[in-house]
Amino acid sequence: MIENGNGPEQEGAGDTTYEEAVSHGRLHGTLAHRLAVDILNGVYRPGDALPFQLDSSEALNISRTPYREALKILAAKGFVDSRPKRGTRVRERTNWNLLDPEVMGWMFETTPTEDFIHGLFELRLINEPAAAELAAERRTAEEVERMRHALEVMRVETLATETGRLADIDFHKTLLIATRNEVLISLNSSIAAAIAWSTRLKSTDPKDSRSSWQDHARVFEAIEAGDGRAARWSMETLVRLALEDTRRSQKRREAEGEAR
């Protein structure tokens, strides 16, 4: 099965065969996904030239158009650079748009490095505690009720289910909206993807299933009470605990890989 990497919220959409991708006109996305994973796995390294269009097209028995479209996708995300007489080459990692939700999905589909995971949580620690403080000061009654509903779904469904994970994303999305800060709100898709993929990573094994519901409940209670300082502290605690959980899951996966 080939995954298209369109994002954590589209679970099941990645279970697409090569033939199904062709029939649904998604071949360029499937090819972009395949090449991106090869780049992330080190098959193609920075500075390496990707196969010529004709070679790859003939190998996959497809026209050159989807391949060119796939390269455009990767170029837009900073993965490759195409120049006349030089071909298409992989760019240095510093050019990759790591906050793109689709790129984040590709990263977690492979084996994200400890530095990448730490960087994601540093981003969250810089932004989310401050966002929680602003949300406590600026939230509306409607937003409080939306967060309350999301929290209740998380309690009932748990983060081991897709429904629970979607409620988790909605909780954090509503919190960002409640800041009334358009710059913070613009980070929603990136933060949502970071939360979704790291949560999915640590939900793959019962040993990593520490419930974070109470952590979210403390954030909610502070926001509902309009206590910005408590909201900031509670959110920082939530993110730090989530980092510990994710690191534990990552170490387990690495140990299992070494044992095979």
UniProtKB/TrEMBL annotation:
SUPFAM superfamilies (alphabetical): GntR ligand-binding domain-like (SSF48008), Winged helix' DNA-binding domain (SSF46785)
Keywords: DNA-binding, Transcription, Transcription regulation
PROSITE patterns for this protein: HTH_GNTR (PS50949)
An example molecular function term from Gene Ontology annotations: DNA-binding transcription factor activity
HTH gntR-type domain mapped to chain residues: 25-93
Pfam families hit by this protein: FCD, GntR
Protein name as it appears in the record: DNA-binding transcriptional regulator, FadR family
Annotated source species: Asticcacaulis taihuensis
